[in-house]
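step=encode ok
step=design start
structure_in=
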């Protein structure tokens, strides 16, 4: 059932490709950010969580997720859309809170904020790359 997959970029590779240049503090912060993403996904309603993990985490296509879960393709797309909207709101709120905490701290807050902005930019790049891959994959499937 699995087809040759379109080129993809993992969140770790896309969002954290500067790991070799990172300080121990940045590495720790990146681990915290990854935990926030996992927590945000875990907080989704079960149907959205399952579709999100299969699609983003396991890189199944829309059609494959539909077949695995035995749900209509439109339901898969609606679940993913809803999950993306919820994750966007939740992660932006988390980023704002972390930024506010960082700006109140006096020890390297600018550095922490910079790492968060870099990470968020990486997530956005990853999503854009995935969207192109999904569109390409959908046009051939």
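sequence_out=
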């Amino acid at each position: 059932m699995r087809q040759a997959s379109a080129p993809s970029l993992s969140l770790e590779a896309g969002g954290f490709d500067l790991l070799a240049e990172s300080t121990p503090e940045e590495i720790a912060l990146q681990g915290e950010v990854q935990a926030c993403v996992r927590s945000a996904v875990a907080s989704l309603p079960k149907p959205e969580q399952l579709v999100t993990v299969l699609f983003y985490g396991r890189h199944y296509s829309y059609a494959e997720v539909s077949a695995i879960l035995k749900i209509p393709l439109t339901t898969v797309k609606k679940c993913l859309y809803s999950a993306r909207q919820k994750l966007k709101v939740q992660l932006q709120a988390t980023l704002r809170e972390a930024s506010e905490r960082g700006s109140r701290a006096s020890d390297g807050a600018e550095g922490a904020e910079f790492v968060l902005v870099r990470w968020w930019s990486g997530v956005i790049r990853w999503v854009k790359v995935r969207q192109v891959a999904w569109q390409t994959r959908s046009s051939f499937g």
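step=design ok
step=annotate ok -> The domain at 40-140 is CATH 1.10.10.10 (Arc Repressor Mutant, subunit A).
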